Amino acid sequence: MTENQTLPRPEATGSFLVAALYHFARFDRFESVQKPLQAFCDENGIKGTLLIAREGINGTVAGTDGAIAKLLAHLRAMPEFSGLEHKESRASKMPFVRMKVKLKKEIVTMGVEDIDPNRIVGTYVDPKDWNALISDPETILIDTRNDYETAIGIFKGAVDPNTKTFREFPDWVRNNAGLHNKPKIAMYCTGGIRCEKATAFMKQEGFEDVYHLKGGILKYLEEVPQEESLWEGACFVFDERVSVEHGLKEGNHKLCHACRNPITAEEVTSEKYEEGVSCSNCYDSRTEEDRLRYRQRQLQIALAKKRGQKHIGG
Questions:
Q1: Is 256 one of the catalytic residues?
Q2: What are the UniProt keywords, alphabetically (predicted)?
Q3: For 6-30, what is each residue's pLDDT tens digit?
Q4: Given the residues 41, 189, 256, 282, the one annotated as active site
Q5: Is the pTM of this model over 0.90?
Q6: Angle at Cα 205 formed by Cα 202 and Cα 210, nearest 5°?
C-alpha cells in the first residue's frame, strides 16, 4: 500500500471514522514525538489512544473523515511510518472519551526481550487465502487474544489459550508440547499486531512454518463475505462499540464497566447484572464494598449525563 492509498470503506455507516493502526519500526525519538502528536490530535478533534515506543506505534482513534485523513498523512510523513497501514470502520457516536498518546516500553506487551518483528516474523496470509490455510488438517490454529475477547467470537476450530493477558502467551506456548504435532501454525488477533509479534516469538522458539492473518479479524470481517466466513460470533473491539460483526457493523454487546467484560443482551437480564456495577462474569468476585463504590461512580455518570456532560470516569 502506498502513502496515498486508503483502504476501501466498509459497508457499515456512522458519523465517525475509526482507524485501527500499528507499525513496527525502530523509533528511537518516540519520547520527543508524544506532546506534538497529542497536540495534533487535540487540535483536530481526534479521540482514542496511540501507544508509541522504541519498537513503533499502535492504537485506535476516531474522528471525522477529514481529521483521520490528516492524522494518517501526518504519521506517514514520519520516515519511520512511511509504510503505515490501517483498517477503517465506522461508529454511530464517538467511541472514545478522550485522546491519549502514551509512552510505552512495548507497543503490545509480551514481556519477552529481543522480540523484533522487523528482524524475524511469520508469513502474512491475506483474508482471501485464510480459509484454505485454517481448513488444512496439517494446521494448528491459535487465537492470540485474551479470554474476554474469545468469549464472544472465535474462528471455527481455533485453539483458545484462555489467557488473561498477552504476557501469558509465551509460557502457554512453552508449556504445550502438542503444538509441535502438526507442521503449520496459524495465528490471528483483532487487528494483526499481537499475532505479528507472536509469530516472531514462535519463530524464535524454533517453529518453522508460522503464519498470521494480515490485518487481523477486522480485515477478514471486512473482506470475506459472511456466507463464506469461518468466523463465529462477534469481534471484541477496545472502544465503546464493544464489538463488531461481518461488514464491520456495530455489534449488540454492552460492556460491564465493573469488570470491562463484554456482555450479551441475555446477560443483561441476569439478576446479577446492574449497570455500571456488576454482571454475571464479575458478581461473585466482587465485594459489597466494591459494588457500593461502583454505584457511587454510576450515580456521578448519571448526574453528568443529566447536565449534558460526559463523565470522564465513565
A1: no
A2: Oxidoreductase, tRNA processing
A3: 444 444 457 899 999 999 999 999 9
A4: 189
A5: no
A6: 30
How high is the pLDDT of residue 3?
39
| Beta strands at 235-236 and 243-244: parallel, antiparallel or unpaired | antiparallel
What value does the mean pLDDT take over residues 213-222? 96
pLDDT tier at 313, thresholds 50, 70, 90: low
Query: Of how many residues is the chain composed?
Result: 314
What's the per-residue H, E or C state across the chain?
Answer: CCCCCCCCCCCCCCCEEEEEEEEECCCCCHHHHHHHHHHHHHHCCCEEEEEEECCEEEEEEEECHHHHHHHHHHHHCCHHHCCCEEEEEEECCCCCCCEEEEECCCCCCCCCCCCCCCCCCCEEECHHHHHHHHHCCCEEEEECCEHHHHCCEEECCCECCCECCHHHHHHHHHCCHHHHCCCEEEEECCCCHHHHHHHHHHHHCCCCEEEEECCHHHHHHHHCCHHHCCEEECEECCCCCCEECHHHCECCCEECCCCCCEECHHHHCCCCCECCCECCCCHHHCCHHHHHHHHHHHHHHHHHHHCCCCCCCC
Q: What is the pLDDT of residues 185-215, one digit of tens each?
A: 999 999 999 999 999 999 999 999 999 999 9
